[in-house]
């Protein structure tokens, strides 16, 4: 079975993931509680601005990798189950989040003795991001 990857769709999905992240962690949504739970202040974030370019670039590369892998999973699912692309994208994204991302992040919280509210914010972002990527890839 040949897997054809639409690289434009992968790029758009990666960009969409970053947009979701900017909104999710903005002061209008979860930015303020996230900062408090992480122990950041406005002053400490100002000092970290020098490193933000690298962090955003690496996050974007990670988003592209996730979109690429999600595209593969979707192709396999569509060939096997013969579902439509959009529903395959959303279902694949959800099950990948539930089976891989949520448990790994929960384990980090449990062993790292981190706050469950922080887990909810971060893993919620991952779900929103993956669903958005699945939708973008499914509309290709």
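^ structure tokens above, recovered residues below v
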């Amino acid at each position: 079975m040949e897997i054809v990857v639409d690289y434009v769709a992968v790029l758009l999905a990666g960009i969409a993931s970053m947009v979701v992240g900017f909104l999710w962690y903005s002061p209008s949504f979860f930015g303020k509680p996230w900062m408090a739970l992480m122990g950041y202040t406005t002053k400490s974030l100002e000092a970290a601005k020098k490193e933000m370019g690298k962090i955003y670039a690496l996050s974007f590369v990670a988003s592209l990798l996730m979109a690429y892998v999600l595209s593969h999973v979707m192709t396999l699912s569509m060939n096997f189950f013969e579902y439509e692309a959009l529903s395959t994208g959303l279902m694949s994204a959800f099950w990948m989040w539930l089976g891989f991302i949520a448990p790994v992040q929960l384990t980090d919280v449990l062993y790292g003795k981190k706050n469950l509210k922080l887990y909810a914010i971060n893993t919620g972002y991952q779900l929103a991001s993956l669903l958005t990527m699945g939708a973008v890839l499914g509309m290709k």
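The radius of gyration is 16 Å.
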